[in-house]
Amino acid sequence: MTTDKKMRLGIISALHEEQQGLVEAMQGAVTRSHGMRVYTLGQLWNIDAVCVLSRLGKVAAAMTASLLVEKFGVTHIVFTGVAGSGDKSVKVGDIVVAEALLQHDMDARPLFPRFEVPLTGLQRFATDLALSEQLAGAAGDFLRQDAQAVLDPLEIAQFHLQQPQVHRGLIASGDQFIGSAAHVNQLKAELPDLLAVEMEGAAVAQVCFELGVPFTVMRTVSDNANEEAAVDFMRFVHSVASRYAFGTIKRLCQRLAG
Question: In this predicted model, what pLDDT tens digit does every residue of 219-230 receive, in sequence order?
């Protein structure tokens, strides 16, 4: 996938650790403050980019995505972050690239079907196919060629990261940290193709759908969305997920620059 010079890539992350390396790598960086957020504008590996933290939750993510488009003129959006596993085949340290996103806490019955966003007619919002293919390719290249070199061997052993994989499919978002096996099992029964659960991606998806902006979402799986989900969470974000995000976005920008 090649792009013209008018492309401006918006890169959203929920936590500071996930984006710090990207901001430090940005050439010609300038910052702008708006709406209680700091936007960093510059060049990442020859791609015009804007980096920003969304903070946690769907409202925060939706506001951030809207401002990226309306105030900072981004033409494409990538969301990076962590997620809980929603399928037994998806392990800690794997990457899930969304093909579609759904709000698992959206329930306007009996006015609308379960999960359907009112007045859109949709339960699931599809990511941009071309951008998602490039992101999945970048993630796969990173895991195969870079991950073992940039991760601490102790972290590889601690989190069992010997053979991480890239998965593509459904991610579900909701305004709750899922830390119960019973809860994730219930969601899996309702959504058999569910791969991961998190708190922001589907909100970004709805904004991008309504504004006509291509987008994609990458989630590094940090836990199994069960009672142990909070154990070593920030350690994983700092020592693993942040390096996944940096390495994958670097490879994505290099692909997009052609």
Answer: 999 877 554 555
